[in-house]
Write a structure and sequence with these properties.
2 copies of one chain form a homodimer. Chain A contains 25 helices and 30 strands. With about 725 residues, chain A is α/β, with parallel strands linked by helices.
Chain lengths: ~725, ~725
């Protein structure tokens, strides 16, 4: 693949030109030169700067065109206005790849957006790949390349990192050096004018030496490519992401920072889950996880055994274990017997295993050895608090020795500072990650466990709708065209239900009546009791307009309801044109209203929503999301993630629903949303009622995309 | 107050005896001597040990009785079995206060519990106060007293700490030394045989030098005293608590650790809120908060201004600010104008104020100065990430200078490690707490803001029920006595509703019918439609037994329902004695079912519960708790904390309820629970229906306490 070749040139260049190289103190051009020369790079370095004869003692060229060797990588550190021109010079000079360090592009508004466009055009069609702009560069310690202006170099290691925040990179490097965490690749991705996360992930996937990948993300370029690349990577090794901009306020801050809109944060959750990516909440967890994932085994389950020399921290660990959805391992009889044999008789006789305050390295070693053989445990968290007679280093040595190739995930928390520092170092050197508190150890384990659970998703195929549910798509398309011709974007209830019915979704019988007489006739045709609802293009929220009457059991009530509804509707909106009334079969409900919806996310396209419906929807926010098209298990999982699932499963029997049918409806609905993804903007069934265990859509709404009006009318 | 005097002797002793003093390496007796002698204590130290002539060069006495001076404080570090005997010797020798370091009491089971009882008896009625057993002792740096066997001494400072985990103390001391956090009191409270949290808090409240109080808690002794003492303290200065044992599993671990049952964790939340205490989730937050509270002002509001030299960390900070319920300050025009004047034109033009990567100390200083004058901001979080040309120490110096007496809460996050270390030290020395990540800074601020909000609660009085609602308590007591005589503990629906009605709580008309004929008669008397429910002492969950029929609109339906209900009940439980059927006025409902309940918590006594009721109660867990008796605002606040509140307030008009009436019902119900707190174990109204805006209890249940059966039958 050609693009991987040029990434190869970028990340393993034989020659590097630094355009804007400088000796000037505190300049980026100087920092770049210092880092690259200082890192011991074995290829050729060519400083380019028309104003200087030499930089760092190396001959300096007036322009990239004058450099005598073909350049694999050119790094540009010049004011943004000149960058497109320089990029064109690079193209002419046959440069293979470019990093633009300079800021001053789309993040500064109009002028910058123009520059960015210009820069894009400069490399278009050349096959040259570009990292940045507005980035720190990258570091690759194994090749002794520090092509960045970061304040610290990275240690060699097996972790790969891609960050959309350059500033954060420096902070992480400073931290990593102290914590002895090493990197195979350390990449500041910047403005993603050309190279996005997906490109680098695809490239890194080929490197067998990488043990885990860490991302700091604010936005995404090509979601489909990203998901594919991430999925392929995650199948082999963990990807951990911290994505900021969760809320409207922070998303706004991110826009002014990166110049890109992020979209709905909950959809990112769904996407990451789908790709097998573990999402952490805070940057601290990102660092902690990156260490744990690169040093320890992914666990086989969620059961933890805690060994401690003090009760309090054991209780804290337990709190965090349960809070994060993991479990305390139940000690087998065998283990209890063995522990009773070697521990003082006041030990806790339970998990957490409290070895008591005077626990020696030998006592730790014995208990740890027994714990390693406990089949009920997937992970052991070893805690040490400094007490008068504790030996933090001695215990660390014992644990490190016994933990080698043990087959379980081993995490540690040596609590304190200077007193336990040497012990922590011993653990770290022996690939046992140490956390400042037991709570953090438990939290990190829960992320490791989540990776194990997520990767299941990556092996699933998209599901195919059974033949019987295949609707006549062309007929539906014609219907939609008709509506667009009427310059309408919102389908009324009857039109919407017709389409859903064609997809095999059960709807209650719904007929249209223009007049009072017609309404009575249709009601008789359907059979009492019936419900009646307003039909008007100008009224979408029928409840708010008091445009619904339920449980009408005879002609008289139908007549009365017709007058009432039309009167209410006029009162609600005097400009509303009332098309008529829908008369529908009254559905006996268990009292549970569900919602199914499809929306269009700016990053990920069509998204399916399921949850508790009706008026309470917005109050309880009991909902769950999946990307469309769905994977095979998605229709079940989207239901299982809600609280209302417990009711549908048969809690106290009252609200029990046919869950297979529900999964089928979700599948069909998402097929509809996918089949018409260009024409339909959003659609929902609200409510979907549970009636004697069966499910029936009693109201529905489909909204067409504005762009469909243009294309649809052709 | 006598007890404060003896605490005075304990914490400011003129003479200390160490019983079990030793020279033996790694013994607790040696650690105690080493710490006390080494701390520079100015009073007299008397080692006591029959086996030694001297310890640490100080003459050693064979027993406490032989010490020539009156002893203010005796510290006992001997095996538990001998401690009660030694305590008796202390009493005889006129010792004023005792610390028992030894473990091996109630936490080891039966034998230990007996020893503990014995020890209690030894000091009973003597006025001597005892700290421990199973504790580390205490440290008071200002008096140069280190009466502990901790591995580190504490630095002098203005923070007070009480910890129920001795092991944790050592960890905290190790951390505090590195972070330069000092203490006025550092107390390991241990098993609380005599002195509990409440005693120490009451004592510390008198010390004007203390700036904040930090607790690590697993259980509580005397909840009433604790709440009073804490409330008085919190009115003046912040109390922060980390209480572990949130879940069943961790509470169990805590029991085996401290030998005391903790009770329902959610009730602790309610109690802490009531007392004005800030509860943090993790131990790391406890440390971070203790530093912030002792160094910075409690904020006046929840609005934060962020100053940063990089976009990414600004976005992260914003995420954490919103997640923790705080807000970004909106920059005033004035501030914008001023910032535009001094900042480069690419600055973010918004909060977070991004000063850009090349921000110098001077640029930080100018922006910070302008920010200090922004009236919309209560707090400023200053972030620095290390970039090639950053000057972390220079910025720290500028911020420290300008922050003095500025009237706002100032927090910092210098991200990284070695590169920013010096800068962090400058901040810390100038009382500006630094956090490793912007997220932690935001979280700590939210805790500070919570303190401000909580202390309002401490100023409230208990409310008095209006005269009209005062029921005839003696009559009710007689009713209850009658039921106890029948050897019953559960009142049936009709009996329960009678009592609630007497407290002014609206119930639907409910009559009892023994036979089919009586049922028809009563139904006619009430007026159709009616509801009918089973009345049987053996059936509490009437729904599960299919013992309820609703909406019966004529005689025939009543007759049919009677047969059906009795048949269902027999089928459900063939041993159930069916007393009859309750016939009640059918209530038209808006569809919202509420629950009001009272339970008995082992620590705090009677607790009020309010939330979403009906079948969904256990699924959505939308509920809130308050301690009984209620404070004045509690009936409103308990409602406002639930999600269903939004519906009751009038969301889409459908579920609107009379909130004043609801508050009145909650008040009356809690009065009932309080009036009969010894006799009633639990009671609930479920559901309380919203009907045309009014509230009606349509089912109720009162359960009497087992102990009432003994006392009530007298």
């Amino acid at each position: 693949m050609a693009f991987l070749d040029s990434l190869e040139k970028m990340f393993d260049p034989k020659s590097i030109a630094i355009i804007g190289a400088s000796d000037h103190q505190d300049s980026v051009g100087q920092a770049l030169m210092k880092n690259l020369v200082g890192s011991g790079y074995a290829g050729s370095i060519y400083p380019v700067n028309p104003k200087r004869k030499n930089v760092f003692g190396i001959h300096c060229y007036k322009s990239i065109g004058l450099v005598p060797e073909k350049i694999d990588l050119a790094i540009i550190a010049l004011p943004s206005f000149i960058v497109p021109r320089i990029a064109r010079q690079c193209v002419r000079a046959g440069v293979k790849s470019i990093i633009v360090i300079s800021s001053g592009f789309s993040e500064i508004g109009k002028k910058g957006i123009k520059l960015e466009k210009d820069l894009k055009e400069a490399i278009a069609g050349t096959g040259i790949r570009l990292l940045g702009p507005n980035c720190l560069g990258y570091i690759r310690p194994d090749k002794k390349i520090n092509a960045s202006f970061a304040i610290r170099n990275a240690l060699p290691g097996k972790l790969a990192l891609i960050s959309q925040s350059g500033a954060l990179c420096s902070g992480i490097l400073d931290w990593a050096q102290k914590e002895n965490v090493g990197f195979k690749y350390f990449i500041s991705i910047g403005g993603m004018l050309d190279i996005g996360f997906e490109d680098i992930i695809e490239f890194l996937e080929k490197d067998p030496e990488i043990e885990s990948l860490v991302l700091y993300m604010e936005s995404m370029k090509d979601s489909e490519k990203f998901l594919n690349a991430a999925k392929n990577f995650a199948k082999k090794k963990p990807i951990i992401v911290a994505k900021s901009g969760r809320f409207e306020e922070s998303a706004k801050a991110a826009v002014s920072h990166t110049g890109a809109m992020a979209g709905n944060d909950a959809v990112f959750d769904a996407a990451f889950r789908r790709a097998g990516i573990v999402r952490v909440e805070e940057i601290q967890d990102l660092l902690a996880c990156s260490e744990a994932f690169s040093k320890q085994l992914v666990p086989k389950g969620n059961k933890i055994l805690v060994i401690t020399n003090a009760g309090g921290p054991g209780v804290m660990a337990t709190d965090a274990i349960i809070k994060n959805g993991c479990r305390l391992a139940v000690l087998s009889r065998e283990t209890m017997r063995k522990l009773n044999r070697v521990l003082p008789k006041n030990w806790s006789h339970n998990n957490p295993i409290d070895l008591l305050g005077d626990a020696s390295p030998e006592r730790y070693a014995k208990a740890f050895e027994i714990a390693l053989k406990e089949k009920n445990a997937d992970c052991i968290i070893v805690i040490l608090t400094p007490q008068a007679i504790s030996n933090p280093s001695g215990v660390a040595l014992q644990i490190a020795k016994k933990a080698k190739n043990c087959g379980k995930t081993i995490l540690a928390s040596w609590i304190g500072e200077n007193f336990v520092e040497q012990g922590r170092e011993i653990l770290q050197k022996n690939s046992i990650p140490n956390f400042e508190t037991p709570e953090e150890a438990a939290r990190v384990f829960s992320y490791m466990n989540q990776y194990r659970e997520n990767i299941k998703n990556t092996y699933e195929l998209h599901c195919e709708l059974p033949a019987m549910h295949r609707p006549d798509k062309e007929k539906i398309a014609l219907e939609i065209k008709k509506i667009l011709k009427q310059k309408r974007l919102v389908l009324n209830e009857i039109e919407s239900k017709e389409i859903l019915k064609a997809y095999g979704i059960p709807v209650n019988e719904t007929l249209f009546a223009k007049t009072l007489e017609e309404a009575v006739l249709k009601a008789k045709q359907i059979g009492f009791p019936v419900a009646m609802k307003i039909v008007s293009n100008e009224i979408t929220h029928k409840t708010d307009a008091k445009g619904i009457c339920l449980n009408l059991s005879n002609e008289k009530e139908v007549e009365k309801a017709f007058s009432q509804i039309t009167a209410n509707a006029k009162k609600f909106n005097s400009h509303a044109k009332i098309a008529g009334i829908s008369v529908q079969k009254m559905v006996e409900s268990s009292g549970i209203e569900l919602i199914i919806g499809a929306k269009t996310d700016p990053t990920f396209g069509k998204v399916l929503l399921f949850g508790l419906g009706g008026t309470a929807t917005e109050i309880f926010q009991d909902k769950s999301l999946e990307l469309i098209p769905l994977t095979k298990n998605a229709p079940c999982e989207i239901v299982q993630r809600t609280k209302v699932y417990k009711l549908l499963k048969g809690y106290r029997n009252k609200f029990k629903a046919d869950l297979t049918e529900l999964a089928g409806i979700l599948e069909s609905f998402s097929h509809f949303a996918n089949d018409f993804k260009e024409t339909v903007e959003e659609a929902d069934i609200n409510p979907l009622l549970v009636s004697n265990g069966k499910l029936i859509a009693v109201d529905a709404r489909i909204v067409l995309a504005k762009k469909a009006q243009k294309t649809g009318l052709k």
